[in-house]
Amino acid sequence: MNKSSGFTLIEILIVITLMGILFGLSYSLELKQDFAVEQQLESIAADLRWARNKAVLDNQSYIFRIYTVKENMNENKIPYYFYIKQNGKKIIKKKGYYSAELILYKTLKFKLVESKYYEWIRFNNTATARGGTIALAKANPDANKYSVTVNQLGRVRVEK
Protein backbone atom coordinates (compact mmCIF):
# COMPACT_ATOMS: atom_id res chain seq x y z
CA MET A 1 0.00 0.00 0.00
CA ASN A 2 1.32 3.39 -1.03
CA LYS A 3 0.38 6.18 1.39
CA SER A 4 1.10 9.73 0.39
CA SER A 5 0.57 12.73 2.60
CA GLY A 6 -0.01 16.30 1.56
CA PHE A 7 -2.54 18.39 -0.26
CA THR A 8 -3.56 18.40 -3.84
CA LEU A 9 -3.04 21.42 -6.01
CA ILE A 10 -6.80 22.05 -6.11
CA GLU A 11 -7.04 22.10 -2.30
CA ILE A 12 -4.17 24.58 -2.02
CA LEU A 13 -5.69 26.86 -4.67
CA ILE A 14 -9.07 26.81 -2.92
CA VAL A 15 -7.51 27.76 0.43
CA ILE A 16 -5.44 30.57 -1.15
CA THR A 17 -8.52 31.88 -2.98
CA LEU A 18 -10.60 31.91 0.21
CA MET A 19 -7.82 33.67 2.14
CA GLY A 20 -7.56 36.28 -0.60
CA ILE A 21 -11.30 36.91 -0.55
CA LEU A 22 -11.35 37.31 3.24
CA PHE A 23 -8.34 39.62 3.21
CA GLY A 24 -9.87 41.67 0.41
CA LEU A 25 -13.16 42.07 2.27
CA SER A 26 -11.50 43.21 5.49
CA TYR A 27 -9.23 45.62 3.61
CA SER A 28 -12.12 47.10 1.62
CA LEU A 29 -14.13 47.61 4.83
CA GLU A 30 -11.22 49.53 6.36
CA LEU A 31 -10.89 51.64 3.20
CA LYS A 32 -14.62 52.37 3.28
CA GLN A 33 -14.41 53.58 6.89
CA ASP A 34 -11.39 55.78 6.09
CA PHE A 35 -13.22 57.16 3.06
CA ALA A 36 -16.19 58.12 5.26
CA VAL A 37 -13.90 60.02 7.66
CA GLU A 38 -12.19 61.76 4.74
CA GLN A 39 -15.55 62.78 3.26
CA GLN A 40 -16.70 64.32 6.53
CA LEU A 41 -13.44 66.20 6.89
CA GLU A 42 -13.66 67.46 3.30
CA SER A 43 -17.15 68.75 4.11
CA ILE A 44 -15.82 70.63 7.14
CA ALA A 45 -12.96 72.04 5.03
CA ALA A 46 -15.45 73.28 2.42
CA ASP A 47 -17.44 74.99 5.17
CA LEU A 48 -14.26 76.59 6.52
CA ARG A 49 -13.48 77.96 3.05
CA TRP A 50 -17.05 79.25 2.85
CA ALA A 51 -16.59 81.05 6.19
CA ARG A 52 -13.35 82.65 5.02
CA ASN A 53 -15.05 84.02 1.92
CA LYS A 54 -18.13 85.18 3.85
CA ALA A 55 -15.94 86.98 6.39
CA VAL A 56 -14.47 89.08 3.60
CA LEU A 57 -17.77 89.63 1.78
CA ASP A 58 -19.73 90.51 4.93
CA ASN A 59 -16.86 92.46 6.53
CA GLN A 60 -17.34 90.38 9.71
CA SER A 61 -15.29 87.93 11.74
CA TYR A 62 -16.62 84.37 11.45
CA ILE A 63 -15.93 82.07 14.40
CA PHE A 64 -15.87 78.29 14.06
CA ARG A 65 -17.15 76.18 16.96
CA ILE A 66 -17.12 72.38 16.84
CA TYR A 67 -18.67 70.26 19.57
CA THR A 68 -17.68 66.89 21.02
CA VAL A 69 -21.15 65.92 22.24
CA LYS A 70 -24.46 65.30 20.49
CA GLU A 71 -27.17 67.95 20.42
CA ASN A 72 -29.85 65.32 20.76
CA MET A 73 -29.21 61.88 22.27
CA ASN A 74 -31.44 60.26 19.61
CA GLU A 75 -29.20 61.40 16.77
CA ASN A 76 -25.88 59.97 15.67
CA LYS A 77 -24.32 63.29 14.73
CA ILE A 78 -22.43 66.09 16.44
CA PRO A 79 -22.81 69.74 15.39
CA TYR A 80 -20.41 72.44 14.40
CA TYR A 81 -21.30 75.94 13.32
CA PHE A 82 -20.04 79.33 12.27
CA TYR A 83 -21.25 82.45 13.97
CA ILE A 84 -20.66 86.16 14.11
CA LYS A 85 -20.96 88.48 17.08
CA GLN A 86 -23.35 91.35 16.59
CA ASN A 87 -24.55 93.69 19.35
CA GLY A 88 -23.19 91.30 21.97
CA LYS A 89 -25.15 88.34 20.57
CA LYS A 90 -24.03 85.27 18.67
CA ILE A 91 -25.73 84.88 15.30
CA ILE A 92 -25.29 81.46 13.72
CA LYS A 93 -24.61 81.77 10.00
CA LYS A 94 -24.05 78.13 9.06
CA LYS A 95 -24.37 74.79 10.78
CA GLY A 96 -23.05 71.35 9.92
CA TYR A 97 -22.61 67.92 11.47
CA TYR A 98 -20.10 65.10 11.69
CA SER A 99 -20.60 61.49 12.77
CA ALA A 100 -20.80 60.76 16.49
CA GLU A 101 -18.68 57.65 15.84
CA LEU A 102 -15.64 59.90 15.34
CA ILE A 103 -13.32 61.43 17.91
CA LEU A 104 -12.26 65.08 17.69
CA TYR A 105 -8.63 66.13 18.13
CA LYS A 106 -7.00 69.56 18.11
CA THR A 107 -3.57 71.01 17.28
CA LEU A 108 -0.85 69.48 15.13
CA LYS A 109 0.00 67.03 17.94
CA PHE A 110 -3.54 65.59 17.87
CA LYS A 111 -4.59 66.33 21.42
CA LEU A 112 -7.98 64.93 22.33
CA VAL A 113 -10.61 67.66 22.77
CA GLU A 114 -11.85 66.99 26.30
CA SER A 115 -14.14 69.98 26.73
CA LYS A 116 -17.67 70.29 25.37
CA TYR A 117 -16.48 72.20 22.29
CA TYR A 118 -13.42 73.57 20.53
CA GLU A 119 -13.46 77.17 19.39
CA TRP A 120 -10.16 78.45 18.16
CA ILE A 121 -10.39 78.98 14.41
CA ARG A 122 -11.61 82.44 13.44
CA PHE A 123 -11.68 84.18 10.05
CA ASN A 124 -11.21 87.94 9.95
CA ASN A 125 -12.69 90.34 7.41
CA THR A 126 -9.22 90.74 5.86
CA ALA A 127 -9.13 87.02 4.85
CA THR A 128 -6.60 86.32 7.58
CA ALA A 129 -7.34 83.90 10.38
CA ARG A 130 -6.51 82.81 13.84
CA GLY A 131 -5.54 79.42 12.55
CA GLY A 132 -5.72 76.03 14.08
CA THR A 133 -6.01 72.33 13.38
CA ILE A 134 -8.82 69.88 13.96
CA ALA A 135 -8.63 66.16 13.28
CA LEU A 136 -11.14 63.33 13.16
CA ALA A 137 -10.56 59.62 13.62
CA LYS A 138 -12.48 56.46 14.39
CA ALA A 139 -12.54 55.40 18.06
CA ASN A 140 -9.97 52.68 17.32
CA PRO A 141 -6.55 53.72 18.78
CA ASP A 142 -4.79 52.55 15.60
CA ALA A 143 -7.16 54.48 13.30
CA ASN A 144 -5.80 57.02 10.87
CA LYS A 145 -6.30 60.64 11.87
CA TYR A 146 -7.36 63.05 9.16
CA SER A 147 -6.94 66.76 9.80
CA VAL A 148 -7.87 70.20 8.52
CA THR A 149 -5.42 72.99 9.18
CA VAL A 150 -6.16 76.69 8.81
CA ASN A 151 -3.06 78.87 8.73
CA GLN A 152 -2.78 82.55 9.66
CA LEU A 153 -3.36 83.62 6.08
CA GLY A 154 -6.70 81.79 6.10
CA ARG A 155 -5.61 78.94 3.84
CA VAL A 156 -7.53 75.71 4.53
CA ARG A 157 -5.60 72.50 3.96
CA VAL A 158 -6.76 68.90 4.41
CA GLU A 159 -4.08 66.41 5.49
CA LYS A 160 -4.35 62.64 5.50
Automatic annotation (TrEMBL):
Transmembrane helix as UniProt keyword: yes
Entry keyword annotation includes Membrane: yes
Pfam families hit by this protein: N_methyl
Annotated keywords: Membrane, Transmembrane, Transmembrane helix
Family matches, as InterPro entries: N_methyl_site (IPR012902), Pilin-like (IPR045584)
Residues annotated as transmembrane: 6-25
UniProt xrefs under NCBIfam families: IV_pilin_GFxxxE
Protein name, as recorded: Prepilin-type N-terminal cleavage/methylation domain-containing protein
